[in-house]
Design a protein that fits this description.
Blueprint lengths: L1 H18 L2 H25 L2 E10 L4 E11 L2 E7 L4 E5 L5 E5 L4 E5 L2 H18 L9 E6 L5 E3 L9 E2 L1 H6 L21 H16 L5 E5 L3 E5 L8 H7 L14 E2 L5 E2 L1
Parallel strand pairs: 3-7, 4-8, 7-9
Antiparallel strand pairs: 1-2, 2-3, 4-5, 5-6, 10-11, 12-13
């Protein structure tokens, strides 16, 4: 029996090497894990609610804007873009980044992450207005967080204050909010508490009902975000799922998996 199991694992690894790009799989999975890890730490640090994997409708393009995290606290909302980059990063004059992977002799260009986060915040603010919530000036801000310990900066002085490097991310503490250059500053400080509570409740309701990515949760606190449109399983399971509306399903539990990671009911 053990010989069969070992042979199966060997065949699985060979098939994975032949038919899948390991780099793509690792990056996609680790990026999702990084987003959820950052969200969990932010909730712990600032006692707020982090909404992960939002897909906010953009009326200008007719598509949806993907937002990694929106953190809601008492008095502020923050759009957060998580960049799980590793290697040496330089910043160009136009704000774009060039990341050179260590030991692989290859580089990748990334559009200005701060400009992207700013655009995401603008689209989110318009979406909230459409749903009846007009935020006061300064209530909504944006940040770019880099949680990867293998991230290295050629010249950190080129980074705008909206970028939270890995070293800064590790130094963040609940009582040390000043290092974030105004983040969680309390836009309603000195304002009406009733108005603050009202906006806080409305934001939580709207974001809890906003479109989001599907998510696959695996043992070991690992996640994958995406749009899962197909289900493969036993014929009787597939037949039963045909009568279920996708919009009504909030959670699908796979009770066990086969040796090759294929779901069974």
């Amino acid at each position: 029996m053990w010989v069969q199991i070992l042979c199966g694992l060997v065949i699985y690894k060979i098939c994975k090497k032949l038919f899948y790009d390991d780099d793509v799989l690792d990056v996609e999975t680790s990026d999702s894990n990084a987003i959820f890890s950052v969200a969990a730490r932010l909730e712990k640090l600032y006692k707020g609610k982090a909404y992960v994997g939002l897909r906010i409708p953009d009326p200008d393009t007719g598509s949806r804007q993907n937002i990694d995290i929106v953190l809601i606290t008492k008095g502020e909302a923050v759009v957060i873009s998580v960049k799980n980059l590793s290697g040496f990063v330089t910043v160009n004059a136009d704000g774009s980044w060039v990341c050179e992977a260590v030991g692989r002799h290859r580089s990748a260009a990334h559009p200005d992450p701060v400009a992207e986060a700013k655009k995401q915040a603008s689209i989110l603010e318009s979406y909230l207005e459409q749903r009846g919530v007009a935020l006061p000036e300064g209530y909504l801000s944006y940040k770019v967080i880099i949680p990867n310990p293998k991230f290295r900066v050629i010249n950190a002085s080129y980074f705008p204050p909206e970028v939270i490097s890995y070293d800064q991310w590790m130094l963040m503490k609940p009582e040390n909010k000043s290092m974030l250059s105004g983040w969680i500053k309390g836009a309603f400080r000195g304002g009406k508490k009733e108005m603050q509570e009202s906006i806080h409740q409305q934001l939580n309701f709207i974001l809890s009902t906003a479109p989001i990515w599907d998510r696959l949760e695996v043992k070991g606190n690992k996640y994958v975000l995406g749009e899962f449109l197909e289900f493969k399983g036993k014929q009787e399971d597939i037949q039963a799922l045909r009568y279920i509306k996708r919009s009504k399903v909030s959670r699908l539990v796979v009770q066990k998996t086969s040796m090759f990671g294929l779901g069974k009911q």
